[in-house]
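Researcher: Structure prediction, please.
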Amino acid sequence: MSVRFQEVFCSNDNKLRFVLKDVLDAITPGTYTKVKEMLDKTPKITDDEVFAALAKDEKKVAADSSFNNYKLVGVAGCMEKERVLKIRPNMKILDYGGANGAAAKHFASTIGAKEIYVADVNVPDVEKPVAEGAQPVAQSPAIQKKNNEPEVIFTRIEPGKALPFKDGEFDVVFCMMTLHHIKDAEEVVKELHRICRSWLVIQEHDAIAGYPAILDIVHGMYIFVKNEDDYEKIEKMSDFQAWYKPMQEWDVMLSKAGFKHRWMKRTRSAQNNYFALYEAVHREKFQALNNPGPAVYKPPMYKARMGASSAASIVPLRPNGS
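Model: Predicted structure follows.
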């Protein structure tokens, strides 16, 4: 019997069904009606059978490049437009959970950076995990540098192990739609704080009550129905796991790790997504924040240089980013 679809369709909350309709029909128009007809006709149908039936009518395609193009460029452009943070080409940038590097490469090219780093458990043409303290592996031939294109440097990471980067190595770390795929996210967040010199940019689901089933269905649509080359290589929906949290819980976790919330913006997606910017507050910076001096620190309402990197500048923040 279907678990996730039935959870939403049998819910007493009509809003959840409206959200699921918006989400499914945004992926492929008419999907919600097809699913409802299947559940009405065969009440004991499983989630896997629903996805298999939908896949018969859907021609699988390569992952939508427009999403990859927007993922980093969009949030960076939004932060710059709202005078929150300008990411400069001389910053050292890591896309944690950046998969095949397409989004990272597009972003680096857009801002004129010569190189960008990508770390993931699955990266192109990386045969062995990188040992702790070792140098990142060479970039994949699929993302090889051509002419003046940026260089994408891939590192394969091992779940449960320290990240193979130095303390404070990166000016900016992106972590886009990644944390909810990690069971021990709290430990990973601590590692991200360790390697992040100044700024962490995240995108996550605000998984309030009722949304986890919807988000699982969305993942299932892309894994089994829509994308030809989805990076989540699983055979059946019952094998899929995610650890969603409401936005408030993500914020508490990040704060405990030493990140200070600076800015947040919700997207227009029915999946209840949002972007957020955090400042990595390390011991020396924490001391400066608590013992401000004119030569060391200026409050965020003024233009100021923050942290060890002269490239990382903070500009006036909106009220929702204070």
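Model: Strands lie at 93-96, 115-120, 151-156, 170-176, 196-205, 259-266, 273-280, 304-305, 313-314.
Researcher: Thanks, that helps.
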